[in-house]
Fold:
Amino acid sequence: MIFLVFKEFNLETVTKRLYEALFLIDTGEAAADWQGINDHLKKIFDRNEAEILSMRKWDERPLAYPILGKKRGTYILVYFNALSSVLDAIERDIRLSERIMRVLILRGDHITPEDMAKDTPATLTEKGIEKPPVAAAAAVEAVVEEDEVDEIPGITDIDVK
Structure:
């Protein structure tokens, strides 16, 4: 008779994955109650048994278009470990929150501890280092004026109605 002995293991530690989340918060609310915003996010993660590895202000920027009537937003970058089965619950709690304007959660298997420790635009500002230019500003400068476009031989003006 053969007896098989299975080593007991904790399934949670096997299936927890690293995730990266970028939250968009109203700048006015973030400035007025920064600790309250942090506590609110921590409660969402704690309620869903997610382990926060890093949470910090990423930057404050103008929005490309108004969201909920707001023209500026503060971004908060969070790295956390969680079971994939609780992501739906985390996203549901975020959607129900009136303090969070938007969120993007990505799996972070490629992220190293060094990546998590890198300076954000907000920490560069605090250190007095100039922020890198926004990519959109560079794109605007690259726009070619209509009168700078060369004429194409053999093509005449087309009247679009």
Notes: The longest strand covers residues 51-67. The chain has one domain: 12-135.
